[in-house]
Specification:
The structure is a homodimer. The first copy, chain A, is an alpha+beta fold. Chain A folds into three domains: about 10-270, Bira Bifunctional Protein, Domain 2 (BirA Bifunctional Protein, domain 2); about 285-380, Rossmann fold (3-Layer(aba) Sandwich), CATH 3.40.50; about 400-470, 2-Layer Sandwich (Translation Initiation Factor IF3), CATH 3.30.110.30. The first copy, chain A, contains 14 helices and 23 strands. Chain A has an eleven-stranded mixed sheet with strand order 3-7-8-14-11-10-9-22-23-21-20, with helices on both faces. Chain A has a five-stranded mixed sheet with strand order 16-15-17-18-19, with helices on both faces. In chain A, a hairpin with a 5-residue loop joins strand 10 (about 205-215) and strand 11 (about 220-230). Chain A is globular, with a radius of gyration of 25 Å. Chain A starts with 9 loop residues before the first helix and ends with a strand. Chains A and B meet through strand 2, helix 2, strand 3, strand 4 and strand 5 of A and strand 2, helix 2, strand 3, strand 4 and strand 5 of B.
Chain lengths: ~475, ~475
């Protein structure tokens, strides 16, 4: 079935790509999803890339249970207020009613800091640099595959430090050296790092940082967050340690996470009217060979040549699509939709001319190549396509970022989902609320290396204290 | 704290090893556990080894949600009867009571076969060879860390096939080529493969196969199972496909799983009175270097020599335990307890003699080695220790397997938790029940390549139809 055009109906385009590329589908319980093999293979590679960086930066994985006694959630006031409306609650188990209801983790600060109260005794126990990959549950009213699901998959890092500067350095390091690095290098996406305003902060955090990615419909997607929690959780859960001077002190905390939502970001930042475009680093199949033949004799010659090329492609992930029930044209469309970086068309006539046809998914360039060097060419294309997707993502973001001269200009731009509008802001929640009411847009981030605000707040005209990037958002 | 001896109090020995080696601890909700970083690093390597084999044998990973509508569980009669008493139920979410309660998956046949009813239309869609790594919940009355926890982590494979022989071949292939292979090759354990009797079958299966491992207290641990489900789930969930002849047919199913329980098996099959013994393939640190020094000058010389050895050890996982607050003797004990395969003691006096002391955890052999070749020696030890642990596990199992000549002999052996007793069995549940009542032992497996039963049933004297391996079990 043909895809809707992005420019005509982006939400339907997204939904159809997820469905037709066989990435995921809705499951029986509202808001839950099945991640299908092709989609899960992409997520596994994303996970692997983050896991490697998380470990390389000194963190260890562990695993906490998903059940949290309801009373535990209530100890940090802002936190419970933020999450209580979203939690799922187990009231019965093993055939009878539980004495105390259990909350399924919406995030794990509470149960982890309760454990840290036993694990942290002395400054020698610090820092604790721990992470877990797990499922979490937040009841969603308007679920959307990958972007907002009731159950989703993520990693959550939870660290404890002796001093505030150490914790703040960790929070920033995770944002830039882990999250931004992997998202840009491996996912070939472009993101802007920055701080959240108070109204968008994680419940219980003193500072939330974010990487924000612009989707092809001009809306922003919060793609990863890193929080500095100060001593809030340490104090709420009674965590104290003997410091170097012998005094009892409270440790400083960070928490940070990226989730399956990133798959949605990948689709919406790279995809085009033909469907997905996958960076080679993540593609389940980096090369798809489509054999073209009419007779049995042609078929065996072509498949033999395909097998030879597969061997030459070595450790690249290659699929020979030799399904009998579909014609080549159908397969071309399907692998364009599913985002395979390179398609190799191999026909009997090509063989006679000692060549194969190579099609790049990123540019849709199509060119014949001599059989003798096609493997080498295709191998070289992988890094090139990775770079090109990254370049396009950055260019798109830059082309859709403005510095408006007036509030009217900004509002029109935001109402039309034009992208990021970066402008001076006075720091007040009232101005945020006004833009939200009039343009359905929020401050996505305050640039990390602050762009000096130029002139007065674009909304109210009072003194500007920060540059702020506004956009509509998912 | 000193460990209890295995021979005096095996359960306490187990509990203390888990605690003192910092593998896991109980969490707040009864029966749930926190897997700590050292334990989780072991589990991650186990997972990785299985995942690699599962993929190499043609399977793909995907992910189903953990929430199953209660009505869905009820469609396969035996299955619901088996699992209903153990499930945890979500009744409230998002601030209000749910219209229909949700069961948290105790296993996923029900939700997966419901999806297969949409995914399978034609014989061309078969086989489906899918697997997922996830958490499951079964309410446990007598929880024990790793062995039986309310929430545990596992992989569950769910395949659908055109014919019964294909499904049965898959069931056996998983048991021997994936499970037994990884458990023996990577975990260095010894297991016996076989079939379960009807009374021990998975609810809804036509045949359950198992790998059973003997622990050092003579009790067996079911370490992995692979089930042939026939058409039970296909029929319960209305899965039909158009076969090669155009007729509508029901596919044949398998399901199979290994879990974090394997970590318990690893501890109890390899451990000794000093603590854990880890096979090098799984050890978070394959080599621990303990520097020994009294003066600052000695310290810097020793740490310099240690750094040189670390570099020479290349990609081995090495830890230099340079904690200041503990003496070398403390560290020796701790790393013996935590099962590091090789300890390298490096003192100033050793350096003067151009040597280091190498201690093998498997044999506790201790020998000096010239500094110039110590890295090469330690590297070679890895494969040797892996083999030796495997050899010891096999030898222990063989030494604790008897073929009793009489029922009395068998009963006494089983009552004393002597190991496996292999004897003829008439196939009746009455004889199984009698042994269970009189010796608290069950048939752990019917050997896969059937040992011809010799003579009459050891329990009742009727004709023997199978050889059966009895043991007490976890």
């Amino acid at each position: 079935m043909a895809l809707p055009r992005q420019s005509e109906d982006f939400p339907s385009w997204y939904q159809e790509v997820v469905k037709q590329a066989d990435l995921a589908e809705n499951s029986l319980v509202r808001g839950t999803m099945v991640i299908k093999p092709y989609g899960f293979a992409i997520w596994e590679r994303i996970q692997e890339a983050f896991d490697e960086r998380i470990k390389a930066t000194g963190h260890q994985n562990l695993m906490f249970p998903m059940f949290i006694p309801a009373r535990l959630l209530e100890k940090e006031a802002e936190h419970v207020e933020g999450f209580a409306p979203e939690v799922a609650v187990v009231t019965h188990a093993g055939g009878s009613e539980l004495e105390e209801p259990l909350v399924i983790r919406p995030t794990s600060e509470t149960i982890i800091w309760d454990a840290y109260s036993r694990w942290i005794q002395s400054y020698r126990d610090l820092p604790l640099l721990y992470n877990q990959w797990c499922n979490v549950v937040r009841w969603e009213l308007r679920p959307r595959l990958f972007l907002r699901t009731t159950e989703f998959y993520w990693q959550e890092g939870h660290t404890a430090h002796e001093t505030a500067p150490e914790a703040i350095a960790e929070q920033r390091m995770i944002l830039t050296d882990v999250y931004q690095d992997v998202v840009e290098r491996v996912m070939a996406m472009h993101v802007a790092p920055g701080h959240k305003t108070e109204s968008e902060r994680f419940p219980g955090a003193l500072d939330s940082m974010t990487i924000e990615a612009l989707m092809r419909d001009g809306k922003a997607l919060q793609s990863g967050t890193s929080h500095y929690l100060g001593q809030n959780f340490a104090k709420a859960y009674g965590v104290q340690f003997q410091g170097r001077t012998g005094e009892l002190e409270s440790p400083y905390a960070t928490s940070w996470g990226v989730s399956t939502r990133l798959v949605g970001g990948l689709i919406m930042q790279h995809g085009d009217d033909r469907g997905l475009r996958l960076p080679p680093a993540l593609a389940p199949y980096q090369v798809v060979i489509v054999p073209i033949h009419r007779t049995d004799d042609e078929r065996s010659r072509v498949l033999e040549a395909a097998a030879k090329i597969v061997a030459e492609l070595g450790d690249l992930r290659v699929k020979v699509d030799d399904r009998e029930e579909h014609r080549p044209g159908y397969k071309f469309n399907e692998w364009e939709l599913r985002g395979a970086p390179v398609r190799l068309e191999l026909g009997a006539r090509d063989l006679d001319q000692e060549q194969a046809t190579v099609v790049r998914r990123d540019t849709m360039d199509k060119s014949p190549r001599p059989l003798g060097s096609v493997a080498e060419h295709v191998r070289g294309l992988q890094a090139e396509i990775q770079r090109e997707l990254r370049r396009q993502a950055r260019a798109f973001t830059e082309e859709h970022t403005i510095r408006p001269g007036s509030y009217d200009e900004m509002r029109s731009f935001l109402v039309a989902s034009g992208g990021f509008a970066i402008a001076s802001w006075c720091g007040s929640g009232e101005c945020e609320a006004k833009v939200k009411a009039e343009a359905k847009a929020t401050i996505r981030y305050l640039p990390m290396d602050p762009v000096r605000p130029e002139g007065p707040c674009i909304v109210c005209g009072d003194e500007g204290v920060d540059a702020a990037a506004w956009a509509r958002a998912y």
